[in-house]
Protein: GntR family transcriptional regulator
Amino acid sequence: MSTSAAEETLARDRALLERSGTAERVAEILRQRITEGVFPPGSRLSEPSISAALGVSRNTLRESFQLLAHERLAVHELNRGVFVRELTARDIADLYVMRRVTECGALRRAAELSTVDLRAVAQAVRRGRAAADEGDWQAVGTASIAFHQALGDLAGSERVSTTMRQVLAETRLFFVLAENTRAFFEPFLERHERILRDLERGRFGPAETALEKYLRDAEKQLLTAYDRRES
Structure:
């Protein structure tokens, strides 16, 4: 194929690339809003309103919905539309298996590195404590998500960080079970601070042990809340 023909082919591909890129950016926005609880589990993702709000075409939005469905954050129901996914007890258990493998593994990897930047971890801890002082428990939940993302980022791996973003977005779907209450979130603030202190002192082993127990306890609490909600 000649140079000019190749350029013409790439020129035709440009529109596809731009549309794909836009859909990915829209999906990123919606993923973030789901993570923040703006769109709770079971809520309908209205195509007309979201399309108008973001200034994107329906086709682009549908592509972004497909990306979210692939990430298990949204489901398409025939003749009804697209909804934020509601998770089952099996989903909770499976996702926490993934979280223990990924987050604890990230700390083990961080222990092998010559330098570790803990600023994002510390910032998330401060944000969580400040939100708790204001009684904003939904914001505490958001800070907790940021804390765990920062732990995953310590591995220094783009793939680990990407996996954490997806897993934590799913995790946020569980928080509706806790109803953003002080009783659920406050005990974890102290655990965040303890893990941070261990990391600051280079005590990666104890930090990992504390994180492992933290995740198992969180899973147990969410399963209890799920059973109570279903009964």
